[in-house]
Amino acid sequence: MELPVSLCLFASTPDINALGFIVKVLTGDIDELPRRAVAWGYDGIEFMPDPESVLEPGAMERALRSAGAVMPVVNSGRMGVQGMALFHEDGGVRGKSMDAFKRLLDFAGYFRARVGLGVARGKRIPGIALACDVFRELAEHAEHAGAVIMLEPADPGVTMYINTVDEAMDWVRRIASPVFSIMLDTYQLAESEPSIEHGIRAAHGNARHIHLYDPSRWPPGIGAETNRMDWPSIFGLLHETGFHGSASVVLAPEGDPEPAARQSVAFLRRAFSAANVSENAKAL
User: Fold this and answer.
1) Is 235 within 8 Å of 274 (Cβ atoms)?
2) DSSP string of 225-277?
3) CA angle, 226 as apex, 150 and 200 as ends, to 5°?
4) Cα(77)–Cα(55) distance, integer angstroms
5) What is the pTM of this model?
6) For 185-222, what is each residue's pLDDT tens digit?
7) Could you give the CA distance from residue 89 to residue 265 in angstroms, rounded to a whole number?
8) Which residue in 24, 106, 209, 263 has its CB near the most CB atoms, within 10 A?
């Protein structure tokens, strides 16, 4: 049975290791990343480019084609750990950050991919006017680039602005652009929502991408002794609300990443298939 979800690994170039990024991701050169992801059982990668030096998209296109991999999402998370913020109080930093995010949109547009907008907005709370200006300018750029922006609610430890799915959806309705949408993240759902079910339902079927990992930073199906998530319930809710698109998984924070990555993707394929079968049975 074909899954309605492309399963991807977070991936970036090796220089991310010196940045202290919040989760562990697959690293390697451009040719290696999609090849390893597919070899480990995934459909492709969620790529995290260096926002200050975005690579030429043709090189990534060749690597993806050679590996038979997909790249449905470009992750902007490196902007935060590289000192950028779209809502920074310093106009110079804001301008640099806007330019960086637009480069990511141009790169993603080459692949008709989506770009997550989470930690890139920064930690501070901007005024409504500034937020409107930033989001509308980026949405206009995304439309011309052929990309889609996915506003990602995040827990207050990451940003004080747009912490819940309800808040993110308010902005999606306000911007009212077909290229300005929403994504989900299970860490945020566990930490910032009244309940995980509330957060998933609050997206009203608009989300086409989700980050899947436990608050302990372990991928699904691994580390059961510390795992807080009811994954079967989450997958059931996603199917019930019509979720389709893509999902990305982090690497295990310790130990050899390959066995855990393989175990996690096998778990995910079984779980998504079981949820799909269950929902289909209910419809009969």
Assistant:
1) yes
2) TT----HHHHHHHHHHTT--EEEEEPPPSSS-HHHHHHHHHHHHHHHHHHHHH
3) 30
4) 16
5) 0.94
6) 999 999 999 999 999 999 999 999 999 999 888 999 98
7) 41
8) 209
59 close to 284: Cβ distance less than 8 angstroms: no
DSSP codes joined into one string, 268-282 = HHHHHHHHHHHHHHH
Specify the residue for token string 């010196």: 18
Where b means 16+ CB within 10 Å and e means fewer, 33-55 reads: bbbbbbebbbbbbbbbbbbeebe
Q: Cβ(26)–Cβ(15) under 8 Å?
A: no
Which sequence spans correspond to the domains of the chain? 5-283
- pLDDT (tens digit per residue) in 103-157: 999 999 999 999 999 999 999 999 999 999 999 999 999 999 999 999 999 998 8
Query: What is the C-alpha to C-alpha distance for residues 177 and 179, in angstroms, rounded to an integer?
Result: 5
